[in-house]
Design a protein that fits this description.
The complex is a heterotrimer.
Chain A lengths: L3 H14 L5 E7 L6 E6 L29 E5 L1 H12 L8 E5 L8 H7 L5 E7 L2 E6 L2 E6 L6 H4 L11 E2 L14 H7 L3 H11 L8 H5 L24 H14 L9 H5 L7 H15 L27
Parallel strand pairs in A: 1-3, 3-4, 4-8
Antiparallel strand pairs in A: 1-2, 5-6, 6-7
Chain B lengths: L7 E10 L6 E8 L4 H4 L7 E6 L3 E6 L10 E6 L3 H7 L6 E8 L5 H4 L3 E7 L4 H11 L10 E7 L8 H9 L4 E6 L10 E2 L2 H8 L6 E6 L2 H13 L7 E4 L15 E2 L2 E2 L6 E3 H5 L5
Parallel strand pairs in B: 7-8, 7-11, 8-9, 9-10, 11-12
Antiparallel strand pairs in B: 1-2, 1-6, 2-5, 3-4, 3-6, 12-15, 13-14
Helix pairs in contact in B: 6-7
Chain C lengths: L2 E5 H10 L5 E8 L2 E6 L18 H4 L3 E8 L11 E2 L7 E6 L1 H14 L7 H8 L1 E6 L25 E5 L3 E6 L2 H10 L3 E2 L2 H17 L14 H5 L4 H5 L7 H5 L6 E8 L2 E8 L20 H20 L10 H5 L6 H10 L1
Parallel strand pairs in C: 2-6, 6-7, 7-8
Antiparallel strand pairs in C: 1-9, 1-10, 2-3, 4-5, 4-12, 8-9, 11-12
Classes of the chains: A alpha/beta, B alpha/beta, C alpha+beta.
Chain lengths: 316, 279, 345
């Protein structure tokens, strides 16, 4: 996908010059291997800083919230679905957007690459078609890209943007027969104590930095429930009960809205697989409502609507 | 090692509802442990953290004057969790006071000068402290003319009404009380915002220091007025508010540039503020 | 002063043997990264690391720390009166701390232990801790300690400096506390001349090869308002998601919040790390917030570290060059680049 960069620059330059958009949101190459920085370009002279590779896994939809200008934005499959969700939830207007679709073949799990080189320091990483070439002090390794995809990308069924105004490349084939919820099923099959222990251990290193929440385009509430002081729903220390409350409630707030883009997990500074919470709810909304988030801008998520004939039997 | 985070235990001695909307109450505290009052030695302009176990702390300017012995007073606006809880507390209840904190009005510099005090709304608390302090027979000769402009939205929103009346009748302090508006036919003082009333009543900045406290809009509107009167920025003194926690310049949240409002302030001159980032 | 040579096994055993005299914290691998953990039975220190993911600041200044405790039981004569929460100030040692993280303690000390106020918990924890540093044979690509007054073998603030000579450790005491620690190990052998020379050579070769060169030399002479009003803040801040990663991982970030927590009738006053990246940090009771915008908060973080601190203490920046924020910022905001922008304004 690194070959998209040139095309992205051309498109951005065209859009900014012909006035289709006021600003363009993309990535610039990071200062650290496998990290790129979201960037806002308004000057067509600066489009050369735009960059694309398999480490652009943050969700750019995050940067749309509250904007009032005309925006060009890059959108992979999951990002485009978050944009649809943003439109449905009135966080941005479709007319403001020029969606530049990115057919995506998956993002690299930087932690897996680190593991593969036994945590030796990586100084440079390049892509050559399906291969990653990882270089460090005194070593060079070639890795198969497909073995190092983020786990959400491995099971992604929407690699192409669901809606776009133009594309940077031809659509890619969607993955067939992927089974997204094997890990969730495993957890569901645990007995209740084991399941609790699993989640407790999983978040034991959480430092409450809220990178997961803040990397997520769904989390745009003016005041998050963890920050409310009257009433104070959640304590602010790193007491495990409070930390668990944060993670579980955050996940519930994402039910039917999460596109499993993986930004939360990628952002976590201590490597917590926080998607284990949201994936369970994705699975439930799929099974209970046949719903996958963000496939359309015309329909509200199932937990966001009320109908008089809604199933009510559980209300005692 | 003294623990600067540990409050002195105090008992609420008296609660006075100050304003017609009942959102401002004055709390009179007495120290529970002998010796603590002496340790809590303060100067007008300083503040303290009022501490309620189970709720937290709030930074509040000290409304009593060091010339008043046997108690300390704070006037608290009901805005947040702690202040709302405090408003429901009663005489006899036990809580804590931590301080005194921050700096004070420039009392040494003010000696031998005319003092102009301008207050708007409920930010009159440390100004009350200052007035009581200056009017004390031991202190009054240190200062020349004392002029006060104090305004609130309505007569019922003025703080310390009995004392205002008393000061109004004295000849060693010139009071200009004003309200934004009133239907009271018996209102015998001024009607108008604090800045224009100041412009009318204060005629000279000569040998004078101005202390200004009030909501941001009053502070802002006072600046051209004081400039017109020829107050140099060094002689315009302001007291700032910020979100604070530790009160001793350690927790890091109330900074203006490299200054902490809780420790290096809350009192700053306009000249100092011009050098600092406008946050 | 004393210099002792240990085989790696001797060193591990010596540390285990000192567990009665000190509460010892060592780097261990947890999953994908290293953390300082108490050396308890069954724990194996791993000194083959670059640096710990979370800095050792939490050993002196825990993320959540009980300050006071109290009862709200109305019948209790002491109800509503705050009492000091009991704390363990017995001697402890952080073994394997990197010189940058020691430098960070010296930076933070100016805040917690100043001529006007001493933070009793930080001071007592710090004073009861001995710092056994491990020189950096392989500084990271994100490290820049030498640009901020430190170095991979910087000894200032350490009680003992340890050199990793491959097959053994050479430990050099730098203070009486350090010498006492080495004496208590009752292991190792006095370092011979070749070992001392090897340590010297190691230091020299690492320092020679390590040239991060982040320029901060003009920060002190810039006008604070010029930097504050600089045109680049919005652009610097665009990608920021306002999480607390940079500030929580930073060994020199010291800001905290104070909260009361009550369970039934028993309560604690607790302090928790806080972050200037969070909008709540400066939200006032009235609803006014001087830093509602993201760029204002990002600006505060960099201005604090690279200008306000510089002006206040006249002794360098509030940054130890450990590079954690560079490496783990989810959106790759890089303090090295921001420092350059500020330095060149």
């Amino acid at each position: 996908m690194h070959e998209y960069s040139e095309k992205i620059r051309d498109i951005a330059e065209k859009l900014l010059k012909n006035g289709t958009v006021d600003v363009f949101i993309g990535f610039k190459k990071g200062t650290v291997p496998m990290m790129n920085e979201p960037v806002l370009i308004s000057d067509p002279e600066k489009v050369h800083t735009l960059h694309w590779d398999s480490h652009c896994a943050l969700n750019l939809c995050n940067y749309l919230t509250g904007r009032t200008d005309k925006i060009g934005i890059l959108a992979t499959g999951c990002n485009s679905r978050n944009i649809m969700t943003h439109i449905v939830e009135n966080q941005i207007k479709r007319e403001q957007l020029h969606i530049v679709g990115i057919p995506c073949t998956g993002m690299i799990d930087h932690r897996a690459v680190q593991r593969a080189v036994q945590f030796k320091e990586i100084l440079d990483i390049t892509e050559d078609k399906d291969r990653l070439i990882v270089k460090g002090d005194g070593f060079e390794e070639k890795l198969d890209k497909k073995d190092f995809l983020q786990s959400n990308c491995l099971t992604c069924a929407h690699r192409n943007p669901v809606e776009y105004d133009e594309l940077v490349a031809d659509l890619v084939p969607e993955q067939e027969g992927v089974s997204a919820y094997e890990d969730v099923t495993q957890i569901e099959n645990m007995n209740i104590d084991d399941r609790w222990d699993f989640f407790r251990d999983m978040i034991s290193s959480c430092i409450r930095c809220y990178a997961c929440r803040n990397a997520c385009p769904l989390c745009y509430c003016p005041t998050c429930f963890v920050d409310e002081s009257r009433p104070q729903w959640v304590g602010k220390s790193i007491d495990p009960t409070d930390t668990m409350t944060f993670h579980i409630l955050r996940a519930y707030h994402c039910a039917g809205r999460c596109t499993d883009c993986g930004a939360c997990e990628r952002a976590c500074p201590v490597g917590i697989p926080v998607r284990q919470f949201t994936k369970k709810l994705n699975k439930d909304t799929l099974e209970l409502f046949s719903w996958e988030a963000g496939l359309t801008s015309k329909q509200r998520p199932p937990l966001d609507v009320y109908k008089v004939d809604d199933y009510n039997d559980f209300v005692k | 090692m003294e623990n600067p985070y540990l409050p002195y235990p105090v008992r609420i001695d008296e609660v006075i509802t100050e304003t017609e909307d009942k959102n401002l109450k004055t709390f009179k505290f007495v120290f529970i442990n002998p010796g603590d009052e002496e340790k809590f030695s303060y100067r007008p302009g300083q503040f303290a953290e009022l501490s309620i176990a189970g709720k937290g702390e709030i930074p509040i300017g000290i409304a009593s004057s060091p010339t008043e012995k046997g108690f300390v007073k704070f006037t608290v606006n009901k805005v947040g969790l702690v202040s709302t809880y405090l408003h429901n507390m009663r005489p006899g209840n036990v809580m804590g006071i931590r301080g005194p904190l921050g700096n004070w009005y420039p009392w040494e510099e003010m000696e031998g000068k005319n003092v102009v005090i301008v207050g708007g709304g409920f930010a009159f608390t440390t100004l009350r402290s200052s007035i009581v302090y200056m009017l004390h027979p031991e202190n009054r000769p240190k200062f020349k003319d004392i002029k006060v402009v104090y305004g609130a939205r309505t007569p019922g929103m003025l703080l310390y009404k009995d004392e205002l009346k008393e000061w109004e009748q004295r000849d060693d302090i010139e009071m200009h009380i004003t309200v934004d508006g009133t239907n009271d036919p018996d209102w015998k003082y001024n009607v108008g915002y604090v800045p224009p009333i100041t412009e009318q009543k204060i005629t000279s900045a000569e040998n004078a220091i101005a202390i200004v406290c009030g909501p941001p809009i009053v502070i802002k509107m006072m600046q051209p007025v004081l400039a017109k009167l020829n107050f140099p920025p060094e002689r315009i003194i302001l007291s700032l508010e910020k979100r604070m926690k530790c009160g001793i310049g350690i927790c890091g949240r109330c900074n203006l540039g490299d200054q902490y409002v809780c420790k290096d302030g809350p009192v700053f001159s306009m000249a100092q503020l011009k050098e600092l980032p406008p946050e | 002063m004393k210099t002792t040579s240990f085989t790696k096994q001797e060193w591990d055993e010596a540390l285990q043997g000192l567990s009665d005299s000190y509460r010892i914290f060592v780097p261990i691998r947890e999953g994908d990264f290293h953390m300082f953990r108490p050396l308890e039975n069954g724990i194996k220190p791993d000194f083959d690391f670059q640096n710990t993911r979370i800095s050792p600041k939490s050993i002196i200044y825990p993320q959540s720390e009980r300050m006071f405790e109290y009862t709200l039981e109305p019948e209790d004569p002491e109800a509503n009166i705050l009492k000091e929460a009991p704390k363990d100030y017995s001697p402890r040692a952080i073994v394997g701390i990197r010189p940058c993280d020691v430098h960070a303690f010296r930076i933070v000390q100016r805040n917690f232990d100043n001529p006007e106020f001493r933070d009793p918990w930080w001071v007592k924890h710090f004073e009861s801790t001995i710092l056994v540093g491990l020189g950096c044979n392989r500084p990271c690509s994100t490290c820049f300690c030498t640009s901020v007054g430190g170095g991979p073998f910087h000894e200032e603030g350490l009680d003992i400096m340890v050199y990793d000579l491959g097959d053994r450790f050479l430990a050099k005491s730098l203070t009486e506390k350090g010498e006492d620690f080495l004496n208590k190990t009752k292991a190792g052998a006095p370092a011979d001349q070749p070992a001392l020379q090897a340590a010297e050579d190691l230091k020299e070769s690492v320092e020679k090869a390590f040239n991060p060169n982040v320029t901060m030399d003009h920060l002190h002479e810039k006008a604070v308002l010029d930097l504050f009003n600089a045109p680049f803040w919005e652009e610097v801040a665009f990608a920021c998601i306002n999480c607390g990663t940079c500030t929580y991982l930073c060994p020199t970030c010291w800001c905290f919040d104070i909260q009361d927590e009550v369970f039934a009738k028993q309560g604690d006053r607790i302090r928790n790390w806080d972050s200037c990246m969070f909008p709540l940090f400066t939200l006032e009771g009235s609803g006014h917030n001087p830093r509602t915008k993201k760029f204002q908060r990002v600006r505060q973080r960099f201005m604090h570290k690279l200008k306000y601190y510089v002006d206040k203490y006249q002794d360098g920046v509030q940054c130890s060059g450990c590079g954690r924020c560079v490496r783990y910022c989810p959106v790759n905001i890089d303090i090295r680049q921001v420092a350059a922008l500020m330095n060149e304004l």
